Amino acid sequence: MPSAKRTSVAGSVSVRPLAEPDLDRADEIFRVAFGTFLGVPEPETFFGTADYVRTRWAADPHAAFAATVEGEVVGSNFAADWGSVGYFGPLTVRPDLWDQGIGRRLMEPVMACFDTWENRHLGLFTFAHSPKHLELYRRYGFWPGPIPHSHLDASLA
Ligand SMILES: CC(C)(COP(=O)(O)OP(=O)(O)OC[C@H]1O[C@@H](n2cnc3c(N)ncnc32)[C@H](O)[C@@H]1OP(=O)(O)O)[C@@H](O)C(=O)NCCC(=O)NCCS
User: What one-character-per-residue DSSP string does 116-127 give?
Assistant: First the structure.
């Protein structure tokens, strides 16, 4: 989105647990964020009947996080504790607020979960062609690589 259409929210972002009443809004943002990034014609309907936000929240509401600006949900992220393996995502931010540090704010509670859970291997799926995504996650120690099936299988065994 052109920078002229962006609203600056620097300094007014908060991060808190994602609550059940937030789920509709978080789901809308999840769809429009991925749909916008991928350039589909109707981003608000992207992912169809797939329900990542509600299912991730239901799996562990204590590991689901919302970013808010003036009380309004503007993004979310989810951590998952698979024993020795820690996983996160989907991470999404409302497109008109991209590139203002909200994604990084939503990484903080997820990384704190991994510290608490003491997972030995951490991972995510992302877009390998996107310098932004690679840089965002590199800041937290994630580097691109092949999906470590053998490691994952061994870790979960
Ligand atoms: C990915 C996403 C969550 C990031 O949210 P965001 O609020 O825009 O991200 P932030 O502003 O916190 O951080 C982006 C960082 O990427 C870096 N970055 C941006 N463009 C970059 C580029 N072209 N090259 C290298 N680094 C870049 C910036 O340095 C920025 O860090 P900084 O603020 O310290 O400078 C958001 O763009 C989104 O919702 N995308 C669509 C859904 C998606 O792809 N989710 C992630 C799936 S793995």
Answer: HHT-SEEE----
Report residue 6's pLDDT band, with 50, 70 and 90 as the boundaries: low
Centre of ligand 1 from the C-alpha of residue 137, in Å: 9
Q: Using CA positions, which residue lies closest to atom 19 of ligand 1? A: 132
Assess whether pLDDT exceeds 60 at residue 156: no
Please compute the mean of the pLDDT values over residues 124-145 and round it to a whole number.
94
For the purposes of burial, counting CB atoms within 10 Å of the CB of 78, is it exposed (0-12), middle (13-18) or buried (19 or more)?
Answer: buried
- The residue to mutate among 135, 138, 140, having the most atoms of ligand 1 within 8 angstroms of its beta carbon, is 135
Residues with CB under 6 A from ligand 1: 33-34, 37, 89-93, 98-104, 124, 126, 131-133, 135-136
Domains of the chain as residue ranges with CATH:
3-124 (3.40.630.30)
Angle at 109 between CA 143 and CA 30, to 5 degrees: 80
